[in-house]
């Protein structure tokens, strides 16, 4: 999959949906916050298990996959599938199972007592269980050309987009495990990978560093940041700045992989749900958060895999755990 501006198709489907969902209801068995692969999969499983289920999708139904083009690594699609199409299909599948989907933004939550409250600007919803599936966004460099060439050379996922850049020169920005791992992975395809890092030592684990240092295809560019991305239809060049000398240079490359960390979408939950130092949800047991009846699925807690298929799997797991929780709770009642 290659990051891009392909989200409009998802938005077009919303008009058809008024007849499918009862948008006047406010009380549900399960409320799922977020509509990426984990949210939609949780919706499919919860609704299919007979629970009255609401997905509040936020502003970008489909999540990160809406900003990708071709997905080649989601099983079941021999010839690949466009990211937005995959998300439309997941959305429709969840609706076919009975999930109500509302494309609204959650502005507040109250998980302190049951039923749990999830608020949008105009409505207050109640749920007996909640699945947080709000995902994470790749941290951006915030430089000129980054947005314009997203999907046209600029990528935030080497596993997804690396194969599109066979026999080409690639730049990777970052110095952590992700950057080093991605640089190493990208040498399978690229003629050369330039790893640009802002300091003179890597943050990545020693074993991963060693592997990268021993890889002849990786060239390390230390004390340097990417300050601009240039091109026409696609990116062609990055501008680099040496932070010690302030010297500027250019480097011709077909792709820039930005691997400078992710930002989980958990701001809303920080007062009630246990988060780690970087804001990821800390799971207590399987998909359970620290609060009874509140579950989490996907990139909002997973910093390791971050694939559509793993997010979907986490959604399935959370739904199964919700089923168990609601069944046990009903027994107690
Ligand atoms: P990370 O460890 O936070 O590293 C981010 C890197 O990006 C750092 O080198 C940082 O530079 C650099 N950076 C941050 N903001 C920047 C900016 N604005 N401009 C330029 N560079 C910037 O993130 P990560 O590599 O994604 O790893 C996240 C977590 O997942 C870590 O705990 C990591 O160990 C784990 N992880 C593990 C594996 C594995 O074990 N296979 C693979 C991937 C990730 P500084 O070093 O100067 O701060």
Helix and strand arrangement:
Layout: H1 8-12, E1 27-33, H2 37-48, E2 53-56, E3 70-71, E4 81-82, H3 83-96, E5 100-102, E6 106-110, E7 116-120, E8 124-132, E9 136-138, E10 154-155, H4 158-161, E11 169-173, H5 177-186, E12 192-196, H6 206-213, E13 218-221, E14 224-231, E15 235-242, E16 248-252, E17 255-258, E18 262-264, E19 294-296, H7 308-332
Parallel strand pairs: 1-2, 1-8, 2-5, 8-19, 10-17, 11-12, 11-17, 12-13
Antiparallel strand pairs: 3-4, 6-7, 7-8, 9-18, 14-15, 15-16
Helix pairs in contact: 2-3, 2-7, 5-6
The protein binds NADP nicotinamide-adenine-dinucleotide phosphate (NAP).
Radius of gyration: 21 Å
Distance between the termini: 47 Å
**CATH topology of the largest domain, what is it called?**
FAD/NAD(P)-binding domain
How much β-strand is present in the residues? 25-35%
How is the biggest beta sheet arranged?
7 strands, mixed
CATH superfamily of the largest domain: FAD/NAD(P)-binding domain
The CATH top-level class label of the largest domain: Alpha Beta
Q: Write the H/E string, N to C.
A: HEHEEEHEEEEEEHEHEHEEEEEEEH
**What CATH architecture label of the largest domain applies?**
3-Layer(bba) Sandwich
Number of helices: 7
Write down how many β-strands occur, each being a DSSP E stretch of 2 or more residues.
19
Overall shape: it is elongated
- What count of domains describes the coordinates? 2
Which segments are poorly predicted (pLDDT under 50) over 5 or more consecutive residues? Answer: 4-12
Average of per-residue pLDDT values: 92
Q: What share of the residues lie within helices?
A: 10-25%
Cofactors, ions and other ligands in the entry: NADP nicotinamide-adenine-dinucleotide phosphate
């Amino acid at each position: 999959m290659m990051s891009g501006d392909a989200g409009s198709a998802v938005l077009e489907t919303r008009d058809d949906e008024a007849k499918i969902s009862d948008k006047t209801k406010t009380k549900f068995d399960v409320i799922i916050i977020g509509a990426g692969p984990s949210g939609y999969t949780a919706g499919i499983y919860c609704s299919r298990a007979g629970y009255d289920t609401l997905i509040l999708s936020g502003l970008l139904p489909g999540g990160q996959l809406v900003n990708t083009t071709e997905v080649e690594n989601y099983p079941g699609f021999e010839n690949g599938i466009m990211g937005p199409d995959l998300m439309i299909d997941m959305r429709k599948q969840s609706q076919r199972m009975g999930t109500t989907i509302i494309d609204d933004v959650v502005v507040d939550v109250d998980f302190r007592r049951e039923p749990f409250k999830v608020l949008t600007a105009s409505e207050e919803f109640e749920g007996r269980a909640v699945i947080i599936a709000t995902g994470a966004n790749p941290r951006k460099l915030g430089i000129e050309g980054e947005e314009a060439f997203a999907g046209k050379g600029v990528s935030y996922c080497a596993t997804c987009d690396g194969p599109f850049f066979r026999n080409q020169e690639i730049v990777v920005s970052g110095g952590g495990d992700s950057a080093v791992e991605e640089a190493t992975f990208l040498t399978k395809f690229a003629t050369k990978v330039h790893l640009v890092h802002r300091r003179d030592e890597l943050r990545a684990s020693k074993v991963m560093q060693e592997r990268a240092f021993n890889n002849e295809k990786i060239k390390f560019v230390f004390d340097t940041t990417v300050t601009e991305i240039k091109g026409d239809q696609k990116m062609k060049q990055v501008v680099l700045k040496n932070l010690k000398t302030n010297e500027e240079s250019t480097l011709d490359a077909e792709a820039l992989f930005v691997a400078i960390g992710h930002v989980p979408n958990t701001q809303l939950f920080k007062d009630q749900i246990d988060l780690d130092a970087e804001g990821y949800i800390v799971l207590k047991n399987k998909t359970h958060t620290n609060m009874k009846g509140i579950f989490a699925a996907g990139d909002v807690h997973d910093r390791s895999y971050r694939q559509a298929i793993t997010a979907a799997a986490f959604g399935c797991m959370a739904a199964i755990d919700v089923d168990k929780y609601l069944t046990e709770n009903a027994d107690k009642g």
